[in-house]
Amino acid sequence: MEEDIDGAMMTKFKIYNPVKYLGDRYNIYFPNEETSTANFKTDLSGIDSDMFYKMDTYPRGRLIIINIKNFHPKTGLDEFPREGTEIDARELTRLFLALGFIVERFDDLNKKELKQVMTMASYDDYSNMGALICTFLTHGHENIIFATDESIEIKKLTRLFRVSNLAGKPKIFIIQACQGSDYMNSLDKVDGITKTKPSSLPIEADFLLAYSTAKGFYSWRNSQTGSWFIQTLCSVFRKHAHNTDIIRMLTKVNRIISERKSQTNITETHDRRQVSSTVSQFRKEFYFFPPFKESVKS
């Protein structure tokens, strides 16, 4: 491991993921049962649990972080390493360990490796987990993200998880990447159920994609403090994951990001804005369900 992560410890849990060939580009962290929220049960008595995804397992779920910093010259991105991405990866790891998730981090994967890792993950046993979350920290364009050597369509990755072993479970994809080459200007404006139990589910159900920016636009990242989106997401989740569903938390993230302006002192890029985007096919509300009556601790 490149560094110690607070709250992480090795446990008896095993995941089918034979990726020893990746060497130090692969790290796995397990939540500490004594310090994470995963060893607590949330009292749902009197609540219609059919309205919520089940999140009372230990571990609560699995977070996969695909962290791409360096790129092959053939991509044209080799002169634009993603400085600061390790800060995002570290903060995501700390947050989700505190929330009781197993965290797997993969660094600088090429396209073949990325597809292999995602395919293997889709085959795993999630019967004792509540959710799967995949985070991609990389360069991108509309509907695609980049591995170190080539681009890949986002839908080709999400489609891998339309599998029976994840049926009915929330599958969340957090994408920190540009979705275009346009800069977002600012505008001076004032912001002013029927219950059923289906016998089968649509294959696109239970997916949520959280994009760092809207289609067509750049996504901002600071080389010293990390990206606007991931750092804001981690901050909001720490403060509100104990009592707020993920859609409302992502709305809070969007509000905070939308109030920021870039500070580059370069005419073309100075004073620009960003707004994140969420696409949800959830059938139920998603809560992490920590029992605390305060924000999640580091």
Description:
By secondary structure, this protein is of the alpha/beta class. It is built from 5 helices and 12 strands. A 7-stranded mixed β-sheet has the order 1-3-2-4-8-9-12, covered by helices on one side. Helix 1 packs parallel to helix 4 (228-240) and helix 4 packs across helix 5 (246-258). The protein is globular and about 55 Å long. The two termini are 19 Å apart.
Number of helices: 5
Q: Cα-atom Rg, whole angstroms?
A: 19 Å
The mean pLDDT is 83
Strand content: 15-25%
Reading the helices and strands in chain order gives EEHEHEEEEHEEEEHHE
Short description:
This protein has 5 helices and 12 strands. With 298 residues, it is an alpha/beta fold. A hairpin with a 4-residue loop joins strand 6 and strand 7.
Which structural traits does this protein have?
single chain; 298 residues; alpha/beta; 7-stranded mixed β-sheet; 3-stranded antiparallel β-sheet; 12 strands; 19% helix
